[in-house]
Amino acid sequence: MVAGPHEGPYPLAARVHNSFISRDDTARVQIGLARLAGLVWVAYFGLAVAGTTLKIVPLSVAANAVYFVVAVVLVRFLGPADRLLPFAMLAFAAVGCVIQSVGMIQGDRDIQRTALAFFGLFDAVLGYLLLRSRAPSLIGYALVAGGLGSFTLIFPQTPAPMAAVAFGVAALAEGGLVLWLLLTGQPVT
Q1: For residue 102, is it within any domain?
Q2: How many angstroms separate the CA atoms of 84 and 128, rounded?
Q3: Residue 37 and residue 40: Cα distance in Å, rounded?
Q4: Domain for residue 82, yes or no?
Q5: Does residue 5 lie within any of the structural domains?
């Protein structure tokens, strides 16, 4: 028996799954994932601010781990928008988190700057996926612009005003996305 294009390797399991899970259930799962992503992102912000303000490196490294959890939840949430790109987004988040953690542990700002480039790519892919979904397009465009701008931070000669604008746009877009996830939590498809 050959599986259909959307049934995967287990066509019977797909049919059983589809017969028990309604569109309403799928929408509820999507809303739950959206809210979970928003809540975990707020936890990340809190840990990151506390770690930076109090200069507690292990707390800042823990914040990076929480950021990766945000990426994992977003991959699950955005999966219906595209099957492959969320995994690229996850790879950028993983590399960014590891590089930033190493930079924090070693106290090396240049290593941390390199991590911002990967977080920029993460934001750009996230923005693109949001543009392909039912999310507000302003947030998607802002994430793409801020993410690509943040990617330029990999170059040490990036002018400070350009870096500040790119970082600011990305931060505002992420904040807007968190609010949208928490307040509406709309399914992406």
Answers
A1: yes
A2: 13
A3: 5
A4: yes
A5: no
User: What's the pLDDT score for residue 55?
Assistant: 94
Q: How many domains does the chain have?
A: 1
Two tokens, residue 23: 């569109």
**How many angstroms separate the Cα of 184 from the Cα of each of 59, 76, 78?**
30, 17, 15
Supply the pLDDT for residue 184: 85
What residues make up the domain containing 153?
24-183
pLDDT of residue 16: 45
- DSSP letters along 113-182, please? HHHHHHHHHHHHHHHHHHHTTTS-HHHHHHHHHHHHHHHGGGSTTS-HHHHHHHHHHHHHHHHHHHHHHH
Higher pLDDT, 109 or 26: 109
- b vs e for 73-94, b when ≥16 Cβ sit within 10 Å of the residue's Cβ? bbbebbbbbbeebbebbbebbb
| 189 domain residue, yes or no | no
